[in-house]
Amino acid sequence: MKTLHLVAVIIGVVGVLGVIGGLITWGVLASRDNSPPPPEIIPIDWWKHCVLYQIYPRSFKDSDGDGIGDLAGIMSELEHFVESGVDAIWMSPIFVSPMVDFGYDISDFYNIHHEYGTMEQFEELLARAHELGIKVLLDFVPNHASTEAQYFKDSEDGVPEYKDFFVWADGYPDPDNDTNMLPPSNWVSQFGGSAWEWSEKRQQFYLHQFAIQQADFNFRNQAVKDEMFNIMKFWLDKGADGFRVDALPYMIEADPECHEGRYPDDPLSGLAQFESHQLGYTIPLYTKDLIELYDVVYEWREFIDKYNEDNGGDTRVLFSEGYANISMTMLYYGNEDGAIGAHFPFNFDFITDVSAKSSARDFVYTILKWLTYMPHGATPNWQFGNHDNNRMPTRFRTNMVDGLNSLNQMLPGVTVTYQGEEIGMRDGYVSWEDTVDVEACNRGDEDTYQLYSRDPARTPYHWDNTTNAGFSTGNRTWLPVAEDFMEINLAKQKEDERSHYKVYLALTKLRKETTLSHGEYAIRALSDSTFYLVRYLRTFDTYILVFNVGEEADNVDLSRVPQMSLPATVYVSSIHSSRLPGSTLEDDQITLEAGEALILKCAPV
């Protein structure tokens, strides 16, 4: 009997434990059933989260030893973009040009400049890039043409079809000189001097908002608009994936019919340091950001959308350039009446609004300003450099390179890399004797040219430590190679245990994560020197960038960072950081060295 009683007790206990176990299991399952499901991941179009790489063809790779980069050189290095995680390349102008402004003065919009190669080479480049999964965008320059273009020659000759293709105006007699004519208005060129140039042949002035050799098209003439459609269609039919459109703010000027038949003077800035021939002497009220120009951009978008609809395939895109205030810049996206503009206007705020002296709060403000003003559903974009401005490490500090690249790649939307930023290239030194930039030559002299020169940001790419940094086998390059190429070059950084390039590779790999392509963001300053950027998405890993933009070490409290959980894994770190990728962070009290950036990988939220 005692044995039977014991057995019964054991069976009873097991039964109770079974019930409890069942309840626990049911509770866990119920808890799982009530947990929020993973978000629906809707595929996004290729251009909305791409890595876009700007090539300055003249300085990328020279294939024939003439010291000038070319299409064959670009094609020989297409695998660099595949390895680097680049989705699309945009080439500065490759069209026929006298090269006064190195391709931005186009004389034939339908052919390839001979120094860069042939149409056959361009077609081969397109085909090979597409085989590798790389999109190819062209630089489209609709504001002006070279005075050597047939358009301009015919317009100057008064050929009826082209008579009003450019902005022409009568001048005023000079009271001090009977043989001289004064310009129609006080407008100042972006490169200095009057924006008007006298034509003896036509006996009128023509407008040039840039160099004298760059005559402004007349966009109040429908024939000009139609020709722009023809040019775009030509290159789209060749297989181009879209355009970056140059100098849009200057595309339309005041209508003289609204000003008693004359071009009105811009108001004076009142700044005593500027003379009448210098940029800054006037406020460009009648020469920049006129509201009519946006209607032209909206028409272009209609054209691109119709082309996409008629031809199928991947989306062809229109990206616009426009240095303007935030409100005017946002109009490039579209307007409140429902007009759709460029797929996005380039965001230059990291170039114009922050510098080595900026605080963490300045960075946060600059980022949130764009995201706040941007229309609902639009795609943001970010870049730290281009061919018109000093290189990123030169404008900031060299110990900030990895942090700036990390920020660029971590933000939502499109990231733009100017050639050389992936290896931290700095401005090269270009002497007055070697200076070729028309802006520097026009606006400066031997003592002041460096204030205006764009050449230092355009020096040849550093492929390795051989002659001319591996850019060219020639005896001379069109601009001198920067002197630090032995220290900073791609081949070395591929071999080094830690390098800017290896950080860049980790960043472009990280961008493929769903958290970055589809996730939310949070950004805020932790101190005057350090800010965080959080990218998170329910049930997916969270990634957190912390970046000290200051010149001193900074102690920060990571417990203030939303979505932060410990332990966290260091995914990326600046090359001068003591925290190695793959290491674990256990403490939320950390010290970041000057310029140090960390990307931490945390558990899903």
Q: Could you explain how this protein is built, in words?
A:
- With 605 residues, the protein is α/β, with parallel strands linked by helices.
- It is built from 16 helices and 25 strands.
- The protein folds into three domains: 50-143 and 222-431 and 491-506, Glycosidases (TIM Barrel, Alpha-Beta Barrel); 150-216, Alpha-Beta Complex (Oligo-1,6-glucosidase, domain 2), CATH 3.90.400.10; 518-602, Golgi alpha-mannosidase II (Immunoglobulin-like, Sandwich).
- A hairpin with a 5-residue loop joins β19 (530-536) and β20 (542-548).
- The protein is globular and about 80 Å long.
Number of domains: 3
**Could you tell me the mean pLDDT?**
94
**Order of the strands making up the biggest sheet:** 15-14-13-5-2-1-17-16
CATH topology of the largest domain: TIM Barrel
**Gyration radius, rounded:** 29 Å
User: Count of helices?
Assistant: 16
The coarse overall form would be globular
